[in-house]
Amino acid sequence: MPRLAVLVSGRGSNFDALRAAIAAGRLHAEIALLASNRADAPALVRARAADIATFASDSRGSGDRAAWDRAFMAAVAAAQPDLIVLAGFMRRLDATAVAPWLGRMLNIHPSLLPKYPGLDTHQRVLAAGDAEHGASVHFVTAELDGGPVLAQARMPVLPGDTPADLAARLLPLEHQLLVAAVAAVASGRCRMQGTAILCGGQILHAPLQLQDDASLA
Question: To which H or E segment does residue 190 belong?
């Protein structure tokens, strides 16, 4: 059974989605660790209640960023995960901390990458007048939100939408997308090779898309 380490910074709704999918038999994996860079992250409380191992180290005021990142990832590595899932982890990790996990670390980001890496994606979509918004799951590299994109979920931007409207409507799609993407990698269906992604042994030329039945195609 593939072992997951899930990294969060806050409430952890994507962590909850992964847990629910595992309990329902839709994701064949186990969560070996929930780790956070915020000691007060609400997700930690729920993980402990579910008897999931946790690790927290507050990154605020940590001084040497690269040293903190390496120490944090060493603690994550101690759980011996097969795959690390950044599920609302709001910190850019140093390249030296990411390097050992290339191809084994996924991140979910609330935009249709390569559009709008970084923060404030909902506001930026509205400011640009985009007709479509969405979320992406990508393999993590040293570049901010720049690794190969595995899968995306899309939705229309409606007249009168606010950033809060977009965030609320996108969140359920994020949950479905992350579960499906993690399942694709954990099962061996998809993997990173160099700067490309292989799915079913074939190079993926465009991100897989979330379907109405929550599958990827």
Answer: strand 190-193
107 labelled ligand-binding = yes
Q: Is 12 among the annotated ligand-binding positions?
A: yes
Ranges of the chain whose pLDDT falls below 50:
none
Return the active site residues. Answer: 109
Q: How many CA atoms lie within 13 A of 80 on its CB side?
A: 2
Closest among 57, 63, 17, 53 to 41, alpha carbons compared: 57
The reported pTM is 0.96
Could you tell me which residues are beta bridge partners of residue 193?
196
Which pLDDT value is given to residue 170? 98
Could you give the domains of the chain?
3-209 (3.40.50.170)
76-112 pLDDT, tens per residue?
999 999 999 999 999 999 999 999 999 999 999 999 9
CA distances 74 to 64, 70, 139, 143, 159, Å, are: 16, 6, 19, 20, 47
